[in-house]
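anyone seen this seq b4? input:
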Amino acid sequence: MEILKISIIIPTRERSYYLHYALQTALEIDDENIEIIVSDNFSKDETKAVVEKFSDNRLKYLCTHKRVSMRENFNSAALKSSGDYIIFFGDDDGILPGQFKYLRRILEEHRPDGISWLKSSYIWPKDEFGNEFGGKRAGKIRFYGTRTFGIPVMYDPRDSFLDSLMKCNLKSFTSVTPNIYHGCVSRAFLEKNASEKNVFFDSTIPDANFRFRAIMLGGNFIHLDHPFSINGDSAVSNGRAHNGYSTNDPRAKPADEFHHENENDPYLNIFGNHKFTPLLMMATLETLRSRIITFDKAPNMISWYSYVYNQSKISLPAETSKIVMKSLKDYAIKTSTLNELNVAIDLPMTKNKKTVKEILHRIKTTMSSFLIVVKKNGENNILSAVNIYDEILGDSYGHVLNNKEMQKKEWTRAKKRAKKIK
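predicted toks r here
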């Protein structure tokens, strides 16, 4: 059987400082059957110069030549890639080069529609100007025994998660559903399920679009409780900026730029294009329901309205909350669901109390973990983080894939390797 080609895509926009390190994590992968694409959204900084510093025939630089939306940058890069499988990660994130061979092994053996995994997390301790960032948790990574060396689990996301999506039970599936961002998807799946030719992502947030689409349509996917990448949280992270900050808050700048770039995109969400993640999630679902003509299930609108409304009251300043409420009301009037919105508003606000099972699971997860500072050769960044992570994981996952009974023993070995790192 022909060896699969895998495309690793890093979309970027004026984050050359972070990209310098993120790109190196991919270049350290020992695999000739990959391509590494940096898709530059018309940056004005040193982005192109950063890429040109590296000489590697697997590396490709693409430039949009004008500022476009995140969705268009993702979509264009996917179209210009040539891999049988596609992985996206951000310009302040990192991929684990030493674990990549196991990802390839699973892809070659099973040829699924896609693979999801439990990514690790890292907070950059400094911004590009050398200012301290992230507080006490920055520059460290927590390793979890319950989230490492897991064997492949096959699932159909429609069977597993559609009911939860329709009921807005998001916490039940967000870490294990199909992903293009810190996940892997086959080109064949994207092409088969595209809303129209050459449009793989047809709403504002491409990763949420893909996740919900895969749940709504189903497929042959694999999930792994094992990290193949690290999610970087930096001062310029787009996700952090979508916490509903007020207009003049500098932390909202990445989100402001994101939405400014969306203005001319014909594939925006049909409503709710504001700087607030819960609203964007609901809008993604409603947009896909309007564009997937074969999907006929209706969500619980009271649950979705309640989720967005409650989150806005809990976390948003008054001015932003008013904007969110207006968006919800306008959409409710347009879709004749105003009664459902009013019911949702009148519901008593309840705290999400954890069940005994959830509490016990959290205790077990925490007890299986350890924290380590990821500083190497005097530097603490995403590159040092992935290098130390790979040192600790070693080749243990290969032994577990050969024999699942080795999981506990290999975790013990990983902890011993961690103690040797200074």
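Residues 115 and 222 are 5 Å apart (CA to CA). DSSP finds 17 helices and 13 strands in the chain. kinda curious what u guys think
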